[in-house]
Amino acid sequence: MSFLAYDLTFLGVFVILLVIFLYIKRKNIKREGLLLLYRTNWGIKLIHRIGEKYKKTLKVLSYISIGIGYLLMAGMLYLVGEIVWLYVFNANAVRAIKIPPITPLIPYLPQIFNLNFLPPFYFTYWIVIIAIIAVTHEFAHGIFAARNKIKIKNTGFGFFPFFLPIFLAAFVELDEKKMAEKKTFDQLSVLSAGTFANVLTGIFFFVILIIFFSLAFAPAGVSFDAYPSALVNMSSITAIGNISLNNPSYQQILNSLNNTGLNEITTTNVNYVASKSFIIQQKGSSQLILYEDAPAVRANLESVILDINGQKVTSTQELANLIHGYSPGENVTFTVLNNNSEPYNRTISLGQNPDNQSQSWLGIGFYQPSNQGILANFISTLSSFKRNNIYYASVIGDGGIFIYNLLWWLIIISFSVALVNMLPMGIFDGGRFFYLTVLAITKKENVAKWTFKIATYLFLFLLFVVMFFWVLYVR
Fold it and tell me: Exposed, middle or buried: residue 20 (CB in 10 Å: 0-12, 13-18, 19+)?
C-alpha cells in the first residue's frame, strides 16, 4: 500500500471525524462571511501567563517584530513587482510554471500540476503544517496583546464550509476598541507578532531540517546537471543529417529537423546533436546552443549515477577516476535513478575524449546556475536531495524522505505566510500595519484611509493583470 493510499485514508477518516465534531458542537459554531467559526477559551490562560510574565522581554521583541514587519512588507512589494514582470513579459516561464499566480495551498497541488521541481504535498503535510503555523501565528498575536493589556475575547478555529469542511485556521479574537485606543507602537507590535512568529517558526524548523538531514541521509551517488554544449552561429551550420545547408535561417534549420529523437548537426568544424523541441525553445536568436556528440547525450542519461559496474560512486572525483579507468568504446553499466527515484541499470558505450583521444569520455557536466536569485536557489536546494553534485539517500528508508519533505514544506510555507500576511491590503495584517504607519507619518486620518484604499485597489488590479496574462499564455 503506497503512502498516497494511507494519506487518502487519513483524509477520509479526518473529514468524517470533523463532520461529527461540527454536528456535536453545532450550537457553538457561527457563520461569519465565508467561514464557520468555533469559539472557545482554549489557551487564553497560557497566553496571559506568557504575556504578563515576560513583559520586558516582549518589549524588546516588539522592536524586532515591527522591524521584521517592515522588512517583510518591503520584500513582498519587491516580490509582487517581480511576479507582475514575469507574468507580463515572460510567456515561456509562465507556461513552464503552469499553475495560476494565485492558487490556494491545497493537498496534492504539485502532483496535480506535474510540478517535478517541488516535493509531493500530501494531506498529512497540509493539516500538520496549517495547525503549527496557524496556532503559533495567532498565539503570538494574543501574547503581544496580553502584554499590552488588550482584552482577548475568544480563541478558536475556522472552517471553510464548501466542498469539505476541513480545518482551515486558528484565530485569537481581540477587543478591537481596546486595540484602537493603544499607542501606534503597541498596535504595530500586536499586528506584526503573527508574521514574527512565522519567521521564527521557519528558522527553527530550518535548523531542525539541517540536523535531521545530517543524521538521516548519507552520500549515495553523484548528480550531474549539464551536458557539454556550445553556442553556435546558425550561419556556420552546413548539414543536418543528410540535408546540406548553406547559411540557413532559423526556419530552414527547423524544417530540416526530425520531430523525434536527436538530430546530427554538422558545422564547419564540429559535429553536434540536438532535439527539435530543444531548438524550438531557442526561437528568436541568431545563435543556437547545441550539445556535443557525447555518449551521455545520446543515451539521455539520467542525472543521478549511483554506481559504475557495481562500484559505488560518492564524489565527482571517484566518478571521473572510474570512467577514465575504461577504454574508449568499452561498454559500461551505470546504475541510475529514473524519474520516480527508482534505481535501474543503463549500459553505455564510452566515447573518446575530444581533448585526449586515448582517454574515455561520458560527456556530463556540473553546472550550478547562480543567476536564479537567492530565493530561487534556496528553494531549489532545499527541495532536492542533491548537494554540491552529491546525491544523498535516506538511511532510514522512505520515512526519512517523508519527514524531510514535511520539514521542507513547513519552512517554505512559514516564510510564505509571513510575506503574504504583510501585504498592504485590507484582508491582511499588513493592511492595518500600513494604515497605522501612514497615519503616524501624516497625522491625518483621511490621508491614511485613502492611501490604504489606493494600496488595496492597486494590488487587486495587479492580481487581475497577472491572472489575465496567465490565461493568455497558458490557454
Answer: exposed
Which of 163, 185, 182, 162 is closest to 174 using CA atoms?
Answer: 182
The contacts of residue 321 (CB under 8 Å, 6+ apart) are none
Distances (CA, A) of 44 to 35, 153, 188: 22, 9, 21
Backbone angles phi, psi at 370, to 5 degrees: -115, 5
Q: Where are the domains of the chain?
A: 28-218+399-474, 229-293, 298-361
SS3 assignment, position 442: helix
Mean pLDDT for the stretch of residues 450-459: 94
Q: Which residues contact 231 (CB under 8 A, 6 or more apart)?
A: 287, 288, 289
- pTM summary value: 0.84
CATH homologous superfamily for 298-361? PDZ domain (2.30.42.10)
Q: Half-sphere exposure of 58 toward its Cβ, with a 13 Å CA cutoff?
A: 26
Q: Write out pLDDT tens, residues 165-214.
A: 455 678 899 999 999 999 999 999 999 999 999 999 999 999 999 999 99
At residue 380, the pLDDT reads: 56
Query: E strands of 183-330, at which residues?
Result: 217-223, 229-233, 237-240, 243-244, 262-267, 271-275, 287-292, 304-308, 311-312
> Three cell numbers at 394?
535516506
Whether 14 has a pLDDT exceeding 80, the answer reads yes
The answer to whether 410 and 132 have CB atoms below 8 angstroms apart is yes
